[in-house]
Automatic annotation (TrEMBL):
InterPro entries membership: Cation/H_exchanger_CPA1, Cation/H_exchanger_CPA1_bac, Cation/H_exchanger_TM
Residues passing through the membrane, by range: 6-22, 29-48, 54-76, 83-103, 109-132, 182-202, 222-247, 268-289, 295-319, 340-363, 375-395
Domain Cation/H+ exchanger transmembrane: 10-403
Full protein name: Na+/H+ antiporter
Recorded superkingdom: Bacteria
First-listed, main subcellular location of the protein, grouped into a coarse class: membrane
Family: Belongs to the monovalent cation:proton antiporter 1 (CPA1) transporter (TC 2.A.36) family.
UniProt keyword annotations, A-Z: Antiport, Cell membrane, Ion transport, Membrane, Sodium, Sodium transport, Transmembrane, Transmembrane helix, Transport
Function field: Na(+)/H(+) antiporter that extrudes sodium in exchange for external protons.
Residues spanning the signal sequence: none
UniProt source species: Dactylosporangium vinaceum
Pfam families, sorted: Na_H_Exchanger
């Protein structure tokens, strides 16, 4: 019963804190960590120990999967070079930089173990950076690069961590062993992800029930993650590849009802999982402090050094790799050099999250021959990096973006492109209508023509003045009032016994669907 109370309390705090964060204009991940830290010092309140397997096996796969589903495959492929430079190159660079820094501070700790902590703190979080980027309206390409980085960097960090820990506990690790481990992780993860995408896509194609479709979607992250991990491949890579494959083909795999239900379902799951993760991170502070053996002054100095290296390493890596690549003519022709604002804002979007803490908690208790090392210090350093980057970089990223005057996407250009494509789509729809109309009633055919025309006009209206109500906006406003009146009639009929509850629910569902289309601007 105590476990159930903790789960209910956890969800309640996540919801309440998220509401408060929106009210006061603070990013919810930051406030959730701060609230978690405060609660951790209240005895008996939400005393939940974070199990690394819960994060790495239970929470990480669905979070990565839904992020991959929402990622544009064409945009991902176009930005693959900067994504890999960050997700692979920067993670390794940060691992080495932090490792050597720790070795100078702790000369008695094996270098391999110092590299292990470097791998732990190297990957930015899959949630925090993109949450900030979307909220402050950063350019679409910046968001794509940050999303792509966060999808892959966990795999690089976890494979690097696996190699470093193996070396630290006494396993023989030469260059060939490292190359083999990395190759199996990447190639195996890609292969299993592709196979999983084909298999799950085959199932979705043949399922017509939205509930079963959603159940299959819920199982998918673990269907590819668990086999990959059991074969020593990268489960993270498998989940990402599978999610990208399915997300790109989703319009042809599922019915409209399944897609609508799945979208709502994953939005709720994502909200609860992400919020719970950040709250759980904050809740660990009191327990972590109890395990630190070193004096406070040394711990604070080591933390300042590691946080500084983590932040500076990202800046030092990003600018040269961004502009030196343009010295290659083929790269420069395909992708001209960006202004300094873009790389600068990406360099400041290095917030860490729960994967860092989970990986730190999974560090071994002892090293080769039972040798001890300051594990408690390593874990508190990882925790400190999470809090420092979230609070320092997460809270200031909007200000940095404004100071750099990062240009947003051209909304007019987007609206023009949408209107042009919508016009083509409406013409194709009307042409198809003329082919198949046959003996259909004239009123029905005319109504369909008007609907196609209305969709096309709505797209062009977005190019008009923002301070003037468009015909589509007026239609939506008036139709909502009509729907409210219709709902009231059905409710009164149910209360008076003229119709059963089931009839009210069906009518309510139809009206709710229509209103949701009005809110999305599709009617």
């Amino acid at each position: 019963m105590h476990g159930l109370e903790n789960i209910v309390g956890l969800i309640a705090v996540v919801v309440a804190t998220s509401v408060l964060a929106r009210r006061i204009g603070v990013l919810s991940p930051i406030l959730l960590v701060v609230v978690g830290i405060g609660i951790s010092f209240v005895p008996g309140l939400l005393e939940i120990e974070l199990d690394p397997e819960v994060v790495l096996l239970g929470i990480l796969p669905p979070i990565l999967y839904v992020a991959a589903l929402e990622t544009s495959v064409p945009a991902f492929k176009f930005n693959l070079r900067p994504i890999l430079l960050l997700a692979v190159g920067l993670v390794l660079f940060t691992t080495v930089a932090v490792g050597f820094t720790l070795r100078m501070l702790l000369p008695n700790v094996p270098l391999a173990m110092c590299f292990a902590l470097g791998a732990v703190v190297a990957p930015p979080d899959a949630v925090a950076a993109t949450a900030v980027a979307r909220r402050i309206g950063l350019p679409r390409r910046v968001v794509t690069v940050l999303e792509g980085e966060s999808l892959i960097n966990d795999a690089t960090a976890l494979v690097t961590l696996r190699v470093a820990v193996a070396a630290a506990v006494g396993e023989a690790m030469d260059g060939w062993s490292i190359a083999r481990t990395a190759s199996i992780a990447v190639i195996g993860g890609v292969a299993i992800g592709v196979a999983g995408g084909l298999l799950i896509g085959f199932v979705h194609k043949r399922v017509s029930n939205p509930l079963i479709d959603n159940a299959v979607s819920l199982l998918t992250p673990w269907v590819v993650f668990l086999p990959a991990e059991s074969l020593h491949a990268s489960g993270v890579v498998a989940v990402v590849v599978c999610g990208l494959s399915l997300g790109h083909r989703m319009p042809t795999l599922m019915s409209a009802a399944s897609r609508l239900q799945m979208d709502a379902f994953w939005r709720m799951v994502k909200f609860l999982l992400e919020g719970s993760v950040f709250l759980l991170v904050g809740l660990q502070l009191r327990a972590l402090l109890a395990d630190v053996e070193r004096p406070f002054a040394f711990t604070a100095g080591a933390l300042a050094a590691v946080v500084g290296v983590v932040i500076v390493a990202r800046i030092v890596w990003l600018f040269p790799t961004t502009y030196l690549a343009r010295l290659i003519p083929r790269v420069r022709r395909r992708d001209p050099s960006p202004s300094l604002a873009g790389p600068a804002v990406i360099s400041w979007a290095g917030m860490r999250g729960a994967v860092t803490l989970a990986a730190a908690l999974a560090l071994p208790a002892t090293l080769a021959n039972g040798r001890e090392y300051p594990r408690g210090l390593f874990v508190i350093l990882a925790f400190g990096v999470i809090v420092a980057t979230l609070v320092l970089q997460g809270a200031t990223l909007p200000t940095v973006a404004r100071w750099l005057k990062v240009p947003g996407d051209d909304r007019t250009e987007d609206a023009l492109a949408e209107a042009s494509v919508q016009h083509e789509a409406s013409r194709a729809g009307k042409a198809r209508l003329e082919e198949i109309a046959g003996d259909a009633p004239d009123g029905v055919v005319e109504r369909l023509r008007q609907m196609a025309l209305s969709r096309s006009n709505m797209a062009w209206e977005r190019l008009g003045r923002a301070d003037r109500e468009t015909p589509s906006a007026a239609y939506a406003r008036l139709r909502r009032e009509m729907l409210d009146a219709e709902r009231e009639v059905f409710r009164q009929a149910r209360d008076s016994g003229r119709i059963p509850e089931e009839t009210l629910r069906q009518a309510q569902r139809d009206m709710d669907l229509e209103e949701s289309l009005l809110e999305r601007g599709d009617l």
